[in-house]
Amino acid sequence: MAGEGSRRGFLLAGAALVLAGCATTPRLIAGETWPELEPLLAVSLGRHGLTIRIQSRGCADRANMVFRVDRKDGRAVVAFARRRLETCKGPKGWADFTFSYEELGLRRGERIVIANPVISPSA
Question: Is residue 70 situated within a structural domain?
Fold first, then answer.
C-alpha cells in the first residue's frame, strides 16, 4: 500500500508538471512548410523563447534575421528569413538565434507551427 500511494503521488506530480509546462510554454506542432524559406537545422522551445539553428559560414548575425507570425486555424504560424544572403567564405557551420515569445508576439500555451523546412545538417 505504501508503494502504491507514493507511486500515485509521483504520477500526479508528473501530470501537474506537464500541465504547468503546457500553460507556460507555447507548443510546437507539425504543419505545412514552405521550402522557399530559410532552411533550419533545428528548432527548440525554451521557457522564455524559441531558438532556431541555421547554416552559417561564420558571419550570420541575428540582426540579419527577420520573422513573420500569422495566425491560422488557432495556431501561430512562424516563418524566419534572412534579410541578406551570407557571403563570407568561412568553414560550414551553424548559428543559433533565440527570439523571445514576447518579441514574436506569441501567447502562453499557444500552438506554434514553424513554416520553414527543418533539414538535417548533412543535407
Answer: yes
Count how many domains the chain has: 1
Nearest-5° Cα angle at 18, 16 to 22: 115
- CB 95, CB 11: distance < 8 Å: no
Least Cα distance to 90 among 51, 60, 53 occurs for: 60
> Among 43-47, 80-84, 85-89, 110-114, which stretch is predicted with the lowest mean pLDDT?
85-89
- The predicted pLDDT at position 35 comes to 57
d(CA 47, CA 57): 29
In a domain, 54, yes or no: yes
Is 104 in contact with 73 (CB distance < 8 Å)? no
Separation between Cα atoms, residue 105 and residue 99, nearest integer Å: 10
Query: What is the extent of the structural domain holding 64?
Result: 2-114
* Rounded distance between C-alpha atoms, residue 49 and residue 102, angstroms: 8
Residue 95 lies in a domain: yes
Average pLDDT, the chain: 77
